[in-house]
Write a structure and sequence with these properties.
By secondary structure, this protein is an alpha/beta fold. The protein is about 35% helix and about 15% strand. The protein contains nine helices and ten strands. The protein is globular and about 55 Å long. The chain starts with a strand and ends with a helix. The structure holds 2-amino-2-deoxy-6-O-phosphono-alpha-D-glucopyranose. 2-amino-2-deoxy-6-O-phosphono-alpha-D-glucopyranose binds next to loops. The site of 2-amino-2-deoxy-6-O-phosphono-alpha-D-glucopyranose (GLP) has 13 residues, from loops.
Length: about 270
């Protein structure tokens, strides 16, 4: 696992954006061989999306040959609702880049047959050739997408009931009214994320410190679903100093030494 520790949210965002941009450039996608990107929502990726949009406007990267698959969507929330993940993605990213709308995939939480919607989503990922890079955030309880504690680590796209913890954490987006927060979501599985050829997790802030500790230092455990990343051949975490406060001093120093020796931090921060 590669762990890169940056000073703050801004540098997490910049590092992540340049990492993603570099992967797309390296792949040199064409209409026949598109780059397939897995996208998260939440506050963590907003800065990264902003920087990617800037790189797109500056002509450094293009999303014309990029296909996206989002991680999750609430069940029963209209797509037009400002807090739906559809609204989030268009407002915070897709409206600002040159992506072809037909290459955007987001689960439909209002589909008449939700199980069929999930099955079909997995099929579409497969037909696209699998996901090249899945980007994710993590919940304070270590969940990835909406794979709440106790989720199967080999799970695929399905319906999940949200934990009280997640509902409370997401209350801030629904006028702090717990009754307004949807109680279920459609989500890619841990197995779906782990099937990607590469995974990048963004983690910032003190409130994520406990989750980061479990992701890196705990055992692989379905109570901290992000810990499945330990089994991935190409797993990356980019985090800020605040998120590292629960790591052992030796773990923290090892990753700092590693990124210094390998030039990992500067490489991506100063790339574009
Ligand atoms: C929700 C999303 C996750 C996201 C998490 C953290 O639960 N389903 O995909 O990682 O929130 O969000 P934030 O980045 O706002 O902390």
């Amino acid at each position: 696992m590669r762990v890169v520790i940056t000073p703050d949210y801004e540098s997490v965002s910049k590092w992540a954006a340049h990492f993603v941009a570099n992967k797309i450039l390296e792949a040199n996608p064409t209409p026949e061989h598109k780059f397939v990107l897995g996208c998260p929502t939440g506050s963590s990726p907003i800065g990264m999306y902003r920087e990617l949009a800037r790189l797109n406007k500056a002509g450094i990267i293009s999303f014309k040959n990029v296909i996206t698959f989002n991680m999750d969507e609430y069940v029963g929330l209209p797509e037009s609702h400002p807090e739906s993940y559809h609204s989030f993605m268009w407002t915070n990213f897709f409206n600002d880049i040159d992506i072809d709308p037909k290459n955007v995939h987001i689960l439909n939480g209002n589909a008449p047959d939700l199980l069929e919607e999930c099955r079909n989503y997995e099929k579409m990922i497969e037909e696209a050739g699998g996901i090249d890079l899945f980007i994710g955030g993590i919940g304070p309880d270590g969940h990835i997408a909406f794979n709440e504690p106790g989720s199967s680590l080999s799970s695929k796209t399905r319906i999940k009931t949200l934990t009280t913890n997640t509902i409370q954490a997401n209350c801030r987006f629904f006028d702090n009214d717990i009754n307004k927060v949807p109680k279920q979501a459609l989500t890619v599985g841990v197995g779906t994320v782990m099937s990607a050829r590469e995974v990048l997790i963004l983690c910032n802030g003190h409130q994520k410190a406990h989750a980061l500790k479990h992701a890196i230092e705990g055992g692989v455990n379905h109570m901290w679903t992000v810990s499945a990343l330990q089994m991935h051949e190409h797993g990356n975490i980019v985090c800020d100093e605040d998120a590292c406060v629960d790591l052992q001093v030796s773990t923290y120093h090892y990753f700092k030494d590693k990124q210094r020796i390998e030039g990992l931090l500067e490489h991506y921060i100063d790339m574009f």
